[in-house]
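Suppose you are handed only these lines of text.
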Amino acid sequence: MRKSPNLRVQLAPRHPKGLVLPNPVMIAAGIAGYGTEYAELVDIQKLGAVVCKGTTLMPRRGNAQPRLVETPGGVLNSVGLENTGIDALIEEKAPIWARWQVPVIVNVAGETIDEYMTVARKLEGVPGISGIELNISCPNISAGGMEFGVDCGLAVQVTSVVKAVTKLPLIVKLSPSATDIREIALAVEEAGADAICLINTLRGMAIDVDQRKPCLGNITGGISGSLIKPVALHMVFETAKVVRIPVIGCGGIACAEDALEFIMAGATAVQIGTACLTIPEVCLTILEGIRHFMLDKGLDNVTDLIGAAQHSDC
Ligand SMILES: Cc1cc2nc3c(=O)[nH]c(=O)nc-3n(C[C@H](O)[C@H](O)[C@H](O)COP(=O)(O)O)c2cc1C
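From them, the structure of the protein bound to flavin mononucleotide can be written out as follows.
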C-alpha cells in the first residue's frame, strides 16, 4: 500500500522560526469569525491554518445592513470589518487557540499605519497565535484598508513598520485593485513580508430595481466567489513568477481541482472563503481531494506541484 502523501508546506522560509502548515488548505479571513463557532461544525484541527476575522485596534460595529447580497457565481459583502477589537481577541480568543493544534493567523486591519503597528505589537508573545496576515486590501471601509494595498509606497511603509515590531511570520494580503499586482508584491517582499496572500475581494455593487436603490447599505461591497477565480488565478500565476517568498492563493476556490489549479499556478497554500459560507465542510472535502489526486498520480510531496503549470510548453 502507498504511504500517505506529505502535504506539509512552509509558508515563511525566510523567517527564523518559519511557519509550517500540516497541509495547504486554510480558511480565509472573515469567513469563520474567530473559528470557535466554526469548530462546532467542522473538524477545524484538520485544516492547514485558520485565518481569523480582520481585527482592528478598537471594536468596530461594521457597516449598515444589508451587508451580504448574492450575485451569479458569488456574493457581494460590505461587512466593514465588524470585530471585537484586539484586546478582546487577546483575552477571549487566543487562550482557546493556544489549545488548538491548527495554526491560527490573525488578520490585522487598520485605518492608519499607526493602528496596524499598535495591533501587531499587542500580538507579540501572545500564546495561540502563529502569524499575522496584514489586510491592506479591504474594499469595505471608508478609511485605510485597500488604500494601503494599491499604493506601493504605503504598502511598503505599513509592511516595514509592522515587520519592525513583530517576531511573528508576516503575510501581506494584496488587493486585486492594484494597477500591477507584481509591483506591489515585489515591494512588500522587499519590505519584509514572509509570504503574500492574494486576492481580497474586488469592489462591486448591485441595485434593487423595485426599490431603485443599491442593495447594500454601504452602496458598494467586495465581490467574491467562483466568478473571481480566473482573476485570482491569473494574479497568483503572475506574482509567483516574480517573488521568491511563498504566495497563498485565494479567490473562488470551491473544490479540490480549483485548489490544485492555484497550487500549479505557483501557490504554496490556498485559502477558502465564500464556498465555506454555503458548505462549511468544503475545506475538508478540498483537502481530501488533494490527497486523492496525489495518491492517484503517485506523488509523494505536495510541494512538487507548486508552480507545476508555470513552465508548461502549452
Ligand atoms: C463575508 C466576508 C468577509 C470577509 N472579511 C475579510 C476580512 O475580515 N479580512 C480579509 O482580509 N478578507 C476578508 N474577506 C475576503 C476573503 O478572505 C477572501 O479574500 C475573498 O472572499 C476571496 O476569496 P473567496 O472567493 O474564496 O471568498 C471577506 C470575505 C467575505 C465574503
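What can we learn from it? Residues 282-297 form the longest helix (16 residues). Residues 28-30, 53-54, 75, 77, 79, 81, 107, 135, 138, 173, 200-201, 224-225, 228, 250-253, 272-275 surround flavin mononucleotide (CB under 6 Å).
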